[in-house]
Structure formats: C-alpha cells, structure tokens
Write a structure and sequence with these properties.
single chain; mainly alpha; two-stranded antiparallel sheet; 9% strand
Amino acid sequence: MRNSRIRKGSHETGMLDETKAWDVETTLAEKKRAAYELISDAMAEAEAEGIERDIVTQAALFAVVTDLVATWGEVAVADYVERMVDRVLAGEFTVDRPLQ
C-alpha cells in the first residue's frame, strides 16, 4: 500500500487507500494529457496562421519558464532545468525514436 496524500492548499486531508491513490494518479495523468493536447493544438493553430514552428516553440518555452519562475522562483526552476538535460539526453522527449 502506498503512502499517498492529497494536499488542499497547504492542509493535508489524510492518507488514501490504494484505490483512491490510483484514481488521483489517473486523474492527474488525464489532466496532463489534456493539457498537452491543448498546447499542441494551439501550436498547430499558430503554425496554420503562418508563424514558423520554431518561433512558436520558443515562445511557448519562454511562457512556461516565466510561469515556473513566477510560481517557484529562479533557484528551483534552474535546478529543474538542469535535471532536464539528462531527461532530454535519455530520449524522454523524443516522440519518434526507434525501438531497439
């Protein structure tokens, strides 16, 4: 059994049983997938309006980093970005990588 907690604001609402923890994880994964699809659609729409993909991508990255800095601060975001290097090199963000 996992020791999972749900936080509401800064208040803990208590331990969850295995089933509820799974539901929370599934909901989070679904929200992340939906968010990704919305962003991807917005990027495709910008491209359809004639804005080059690399410009859209750089603008999106700038928006994300500025939002993260506003939320978590420069040091936390710098640490996060530093860890991203290994994730990128490990192929975590490569969509069409060949399986061996």
